[in-house]
Design goal:
- 27% of the residues lie in helices and 23% in strands.
- Strand 1 and strand 2 form a beta hairpin.
- It is of the alpha+beta class.
- The chain has one domain: Gcn5-related N-acetyltransferase (GNAT) (Aminopeptidase), CATH 3.40.630.
Length: 207
């Protein structure tokens, strides 16, 4: 996928497939403290019964293998990396939905839906990370838009996400909002197709 660039009021955000970014850049985005650094975007890829037995170092190793950072010729990767004026600032996980083992076993996304979980043509956006110090600058919105282009270019029939409903001025911890907000997905062209709980929605684009 070609470099996707978005211009905000005073900054330029570019987004590239993770395999075209360096592993050092991705490590900068995840940082060394907080939920993102501990999770290493492995939550939806690991069965609940196994989660606590997988150390952070192993989670990071798995992320590096999944992204194939630094290998621009790789045929697959597990997400996108955002740069703001050349500085690595964000991450978005986007893959075929079948890549997320825990997602397929979690009740919430499927409540009230008659959906074939094994449909490899449906992709999912499951996680956003914005580097500390660069939040509220449009990074997640740029990543969500780029995820749509990325999934379509890789042959997806549809792409969906599972964001939280937020209220204006409401502060939420990353542990809740890592899936993104409804407004971020709506701005990228996603439409609500299901509301399994009072605070969680399923947003989707069918190509």
């Amino acid at each position: 996928m070609a470099d996707t660039t978005r211009t905000t009021t005073d900054t330029v955000i570019s987004v590239v497939p993770a395999n075209e970014a360096s592993w050092d850049d991705l490590r900068v985005v995840f940082g060394t403290r907080g939920d993102a650094s501990r999770c290493q975007c492995q939550y939806f890829k690991t069965r609940g019964s196994q989660w606590r037995s997988v150390p952070v170092e192993e989670r990071a190793h798995r992320l590096r293998e999944q992204t194939d950072c630094g290998n621009s010729e790789a045929g697959t990767t597990s997400g996108l990396v955002a740069y703001l004026d050349g500085e690595p600032v964000g991450w978005c996980a986007v893959e075929p939905r079948t890549a997320y083992e825990r997602l397929l076993r979690t009740r919430v996304p499927w409540t009230g839906r008659d959906e074939d979980k094994t449909d490899e043509g449906v992709w999912a956006v499951t996680c956003f990370v914005t580097r500390v110090g660069f939040r509220h600058r449009g990074v997640s919105r740029a990543l969500a838009r780029a995820a749509v282009d990325f999934a379509r270019a890789r042959g997806a029939r549809a792409v969906e996400g599972y964001p939280m409903i937020t209220e204006p001025g409401q502060e939420m911890a990353w542990g809740e909002l890592y899936v993104g907000s409804r407004s971020i997905f709506a701005a990228a062209g996603f439409a609500e197709v299901n509301r399994p709980t009072l605070r969680r929605v399923v947003m989707r684009i069918d190509f």
